[in-house]
Amino acid sequence: MSPAAGYDPKIIERFAEQLLRKADNVRVGCAVGGGVFGVFVGAVPLTPLKSVWGLPAGFGVATIIVGALVGILIGWVIGEGRAFRYRVQAQSAIFQLEIERRVTSAVADAVATATAHAASTVLEEPPTLPSVPPLSPAPPLAEEPAEEPAKPPSLPPLSPVNESARPTEPLLRPPGGPLPPVSPPPDEPPLSPPAVAESHQ
User: Fold this and answer.
1) Among candidates 179, 177, 183, which has minimal Cα distance to 200?
2) How far apart are CA 1 and CA 176, in angstroms?
3) CA triplet 42, 45, 47: central angle to 5 degrees?
4) pLDDT 10s digits, 47-60
């Protein structure tokens, strides 16, 4: 696209001004045209066509004046109707130009606000602190007794577990070996030691 075809709002303003001037010229031109036509119509009694109106020639000047005034009035009304169209076109062009200007200014304000907000957030960041030389070691302090950690709650002592003595004899006796002692039934009295010895023999 050539540079001459770029957008230029001044061209739209000039176009709107030309339309407004054209509307004025059309209105005035129609009024003048109507006045001239009225003069010709009002001059009919002064011409050989006076028999059409049936008026004497003495009224010719009055008919010319009346014809001019009526022609100007009719031409003005017709010209005003045609000029209105040109005014509407001019106003629509100006309206579109005004919308474009307001949108451009709103976008520029939004960009400026966003830029200012971004700049303020950058300035609000904490500045970096300058480097501080290392500090000399502090003098030793008197040692304070370290706090002993809290002891867990004491549990009650466990009762000793009495394990039953395991039999030293094998669970299975070899064939032909002595039988283990048999406890007497509950209804019989216990045997005396010599009787127990005899039963084992």
Assistant:
1) 179
2) 128
3) 105
4) 766 666 666 667 77
